[in-house]
Design brief:
Four copies of one chain form a homotetramer. By secondary structure, chain A is an alpha/beta fold. Chain A has two domains: 124 residues, NAD(P)-binding Rossmann-like Domain (Rossmann fold, 3-Layer(aba) Sandwich), CATH 3.40.50.720; 163 residues, Dihydrodipicolinate Reductase, domain 2 (2-Layer Sandwich). In chain A, the strands form two sheets. The first copy, chain A, has a seven-stranded parallel sheet with strand order 3-2-1-4-5-7-6, with helices on both faces. In chain A, strands 9-10-8-11-14-13-12 form a seven-stranded mixed sheet. The longest helix of chain A is centred in the middle third of the chain and has 15 residues. Chain A is globular and about 60 Å long. Chains in contact: A-B, A-C, A-D, B-C, B-D, C-D. The interface between A and D is large, with 47 and 47 residues.
Chain lengths: 344, 344, 344, 344
């Protein structure tokens, strides 16, 4: 049994971490922080938790957190990088769900997040918390950068092709569709139901912060400079990301070979589900569960289309964070993560 | 470990039973039947279950089911009453999620379901599976009639007032709002998204099958003939029932006394959550969980409004069925039912 | 051709007024005001209007508005009552979509809106802009209080029964369901899609500002003190109000007589549509149109249920305001209001 | 005033044609046919039309239609091509909203629609009813093939680039998102709200009937063989198509030049709205109106992304059909098509 804390618990990743961690057999959630809600019961803010916890939000400082085994940062970017040095020095392990440690290049961080990185020296120590690709690094690290939601869906979809060196470098496209919860639990006009329901809109088409994150990971696994056209869209739904990925093969291969490539690559992965060739995963089949479902298409020889679906708050955020926790402690990777998706 | 079967597993109560029973520590789902899908993998029809089961639908007859400990009927009305006599004789316990054994009066059944009851002799043996009201009867029975979704929300909301004899007999109103999944997994034009989204409509206002069920139970606990005006509405959402219940007190009582009545009545109930006086439960706070959240209002002296929210597929169907299973076997009542609601 | 202005044009009633007034054959929209957006093109804020207007928001004062024929207030309460005296004195006619002049009693206004009424002397001059009930008063007035959305649906549904003196005074219940646009175009956390979609919740059950408005009107037409239990609910949809109204007849009457009562009462009304007895109007059948559809039920003798559906932004706000404009100028009442509902 | 008929009026294109044609100042809708609903009032099936028409569905044969000026086919494919020869011979003009005359090659039709074309001799006479590209042809024709919804959004978005010869031939991608009404008014399990709401899914990724239609038109305007990877997705909304289009420029051009190209190309088009460079049209801004809104992006030099949004039932079907009618009769092209989108 370890004792964990959640810093910044009033957002959707906060409540989702609680949903997964409260019943986790090896975890006690000892602290959850919020400045604005300090002193309030957590189940007052999130009535879904009534009967499952007596926790209150606290406004503890970094010092108070030093006795914990692990801290999850469910904060906006900029918080974890301030608190990390002291906590790491105190022996706490960190799983950061924000963007602070996802990019290895502090200059790139500054460019996309409009803020200097305050702990650039820690960047080399951070592992990128996508266990399917970097399990060994994560296991050995004390600072895990939990991937973005879009990068998770996109990277798992492209990875087998890029690892095998099968894709042309140019022309990768990731057309992504996300539910509104991806924008966070925040009172923005564009997110209210009359503005966001019954409508589709693209955003950030000319440039989005998840693009450099995607490109860094893909380049790393390809061993070459990979550029991706990344286009996010806001969907009138609560949860879910659907990534539609386009790439061209250097030379055509059979559908069977394509399917085998993915099936074998992910055969041992408990949280990646490769559907039969030609199927279409819908996000409703992953709702509430830590799973990425992938299906392959080759509409014309050499033109590959990969469909990749996750729940943005689970495999795209809190679930993946718990998966990383399990990796860190060498527990079975699906401990506390066996939820069956909620359908319908 | 007991072996259970699900008869009629292709609907929403079927897949929801699987979501709850597959991880249940005392249960093995041995059989799930469907004539139309016989031979097909269950996770082919419900991809949410991929990785969680290798079950296939089977077309077994009643005989093949006689070796099971418990059978859940997730069928339309009319099926369970045909199969029940033989199965009960063989020692199988039955939990019927359909309407066949909910009404104690075969003539009333015939009137509302336009079909003669084929096993009227069994009606006196059936317990009404609302454990909060009839736990002892259920425990001693071999045939449990799992309540309808609306009746669950309505009855739990009115019960403390009627048990205490506080309500005027006339004028009870249950204005209920349900998600579309309550209509079942069935290809009906009125249910397709362009017909049912972004709209509200009442239905069955002049008479709905759940009214006699509600009235029978309320009359029984009131010890008097209770009539209710029951008005169901179709909401543009997937899951959830919200019952808005109106009644008049014989004489005004304080809000505190009202609140105490409910708080004490349900203090020991793991699945009924009485909110602070004057709050408003939303169905999103019960999504995916076996809980009924209730809040009380008294806008004017003597005018009580009870708000009652459940997930129609869980506390309103499959979850309650599992709760009844736990009662039957004297297991802890929340065994396999500790899911935290999915929010957002 | 008259020249009109809209004060406070950045909300949903603002854009809806523009949708209806821009093509109105007798109207030129000369001014639309907003402090926050002054100088900006209206179609920048509302791209739906691109190609239909070159208007910009202006920050004009009351003086600049005095040359107009009519001003629509699409502001929060508290604005119209400040500006009204001067504008009326200058000969401008006012149609106020806010609550400032809906209640005839300044004390009641203060109680429910937590603000002293600044122009109580004007209250007797204000007509209540529900043409189906008060057409003659409106025609003779220079200050029209456009009704609230809920009161429109509720009052039209109860009116024939109360005018005819058929209902018992006690026990009137208005259980109402509204789309989220009724809460306005405002960045509130509870309105964002992940908080409001796929869920139903009641609000203001213990008391809501529309209750005194409803009760004043119903009492007036009944010639007696009428109390209503009014319960609003937030629905996961954009537009639409569905009022489910309950009342008891002094003595039972036939369904035919009930139907005749409504059919005759509204026979000459272009914007009230009485459906055949026993039907169920859905809000989708009124989307975008200035119509109230009503259907009647008598589930048990003497128990009447009236279903009343409107588009909260049209017959519940902007459309009714245009209807009142037409009344004021003795134009055909459906001038500019012949839109067919958008279905699906 | 001309007299028109609608063949197959019980679907969404049927009711949408009525919404647009009933108030059209030059049109009388004389006949609307349906075998299944013959004799029934149209407003019985579509209560949104109550008060706007007394039409009944009729089961007339081709002969009865010969006295009409124009017939709209709102039927599944296969009907118009059977009835067309006789009607054309009788002097009736035809606007076919189905796919029968969209492809110029009968063999291609047979391949994608699994049916021999029964009137291949008529194919050369059919004009492709996208007025922005083929206005002159339409004007001179008596048989107009109204384009598919996806092809309309995709073609208008790619056209200026292809006409100017700026795009590389390979690598065109059209990632499209459609509301559920695009699947028609039909009782299919996958379309019911619990199956289609709160979820995104791709379909027909390996091949969809609209691909050959898109490719034929694009090839024609490019004067070269154009291939497109077309990927449709089902969105949890009622109306709207959002096409996200990807192409590579032969050589980079400035954003200004790109914007100018589109702005000038569509400057005289009443129904194509080119937004400022870098904006993101949402489908809610076109709801109910006959307009295509387009915005341009060039995230990296040479990589163009075109966003194109329409209402699938208006500019993607019935509205475009009325636009074609106006072209045929040389009326102002926006006659009866000046509806302002319904927002929110």
């Amino acid at each position: 049994m370890i004792r964990v804390g959640i810093v910044g618990g009033t957002g959707y990743t906060g409540v989702e971490l609680l949903r997964l961690l409260l019943p986790h057999p090896e975890v006690e959630v000892a602290v959850i922080t919020s400045r604005g809600e300090a002193g309030q019961r957590v189940d007052g803010l999130f009535p879904s938790l009534r009967g499952h916890t007596d926790l209150k939000f606290s406004a503890v400082s970094g010092k108070d957190l030093q006795g914990l085994d692990v801290i999850f940062f469910a904060t906006p970017h900029g918080v974890a990088m301030e608190m990390a040095p002291e906590l790491l020095a105190a022996g706490v392990r960190l799983i950061d769900l924000s963007a602070d440690f996802r990019l290895s290049d502090a200059a790139l961080f500054a460019e996309w997040y409009h803020q200097e990185h305050s702990s650039p020296a820690l960047l080399p120590q951070a592992s990128y918390g996508l266990p399917e690709l970097f399990r060994d690094e994560i296991r050995g690290s004390r600072l895990v950068a939990n991937p973005g939601c879009y990068p998770t869906a996109v990277t798992l979809g492209f990875a087998p092709l890029l690892e095998a060196g099968l894709l042309e470098a140019g022309g990768l496209i990731a057309d992504c569709k996300s539910g509104v919860s991806g924008a966070g639990r925040t009172a923005r006009l564009g997110l209210i139901l009359p503005e966001s329901a019954d409508s589709v809109t693209a955003y950030g088409v000319s440039g989005h912060r998840h693009r450099p994150e995607i490109e860094e990971t893909l380049s790393r696994i390809a061993g070459a400079d990979i550029q991706v056209q990344f286009t996010p869209h806001l969907m009138p739904m609560i949860r879910g990301i659907h990534a539609t990925l386009y790439g061209r093969l250097h030379k055509p291969m059979s559908n069977e070979a394509l399917q085998d490539l993915f099936a074998q690559r992910y055969a041992q992965e408990p949280f990646v589900d490769v559907l039969p060739f030609g199927e279409h995963p819908s996000t409703r089949t992953v709702r509430g569960a830590n799973v990425c479902r992938i299906a392959l298409h080759q509409p014309r020889p050499g033109q590959v289309v990969v469909l990749s679906a996750i729940d943005n708050l689970v495999k795209g955020a809190a679930g993946q964070a718990v998966q990383n926790l399990n990796v860190l402690f060498a527990w079975p990777e699906n401990l506390g993560l066996a939820q069956i998706p909620l359908l319908p």
